[in-house]
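Quality-control log, excerpt.
Job 1 of 2 completed; input and output follow.
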Amino acid sequence: MTEFEKNENAENLINNTSADIVYLPQNKAFYNHLEDKIYLPQRKQFVSSEAFYNVLFHELGHWSGHSTRLNRSLGNVFQSKEYGFEELIAEINAAFISALLGFKTKITDNVDYINSWLQVMRNDKKFVVQAASQAQKAADYILAFSEVKKEVA
């Protein structure tokens, strides 16, 4: 992969959050709530700017839930109800922010995530509405760092 053009509005938003972002030559992106750090593959490892920013906005969604910010239960047990809920929040948050900044959005096609969402939705009909509400709070929190919010809204 090659370096792609940076989006000025997205870069300003990311920088203004002051989130601690670590870029490593790895294939995984994740948020470590104990360290309060986002770990991402290097930019050149992404296929496009949209893919990069969508993953970063997803991880910023998790970052927003830290106890010093919105204080959400981050669901750290893989495939638990709480984990699926937090992943859906992060995905919807990423879609909101990506759309606002003019990127094409795509909800993940990760089978593990989708299975965890389906498992919970079968038993809790309010699951998606509650996740969307929390995702809106996350997006609002993150977008409060942006100069673009006022221009676009």
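Job 2 of 2 completed; input and output follow.
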Amino acid sequence: MSNHDDHNHDHEHEFVDEEVVILEDEDGNEHEFLIAETFEVDARIYAVLVSADGTSEEGFIFRVEEKDVDGEQFLDFIAIEDDAEWANVERVYNEMLEEEDQE
């Protein structure tokens, strides 16, 4: 998982999807996550994933793309490697958090 994916937050999430997402890190270890929220930036979808076991409040932001495998649709969670893309996504997400705090 890329360093760009780390996102600390101190707000509550209503989970978008209770389905567990399993991602593999660079060492081959599997980690279980829940989708805390999704949002759109420049016509791309992004998801904030949080630990499924609740042991960490740290969230990770990934770009989400649909993938077709043998006629079945799957979601592919892609690490954000591009610094410009990350800066834009982080800016939009932080603006969303500020709006939530004002409500």
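Post-run check on job 2. DSSP finds one helix and six strands in the chain.
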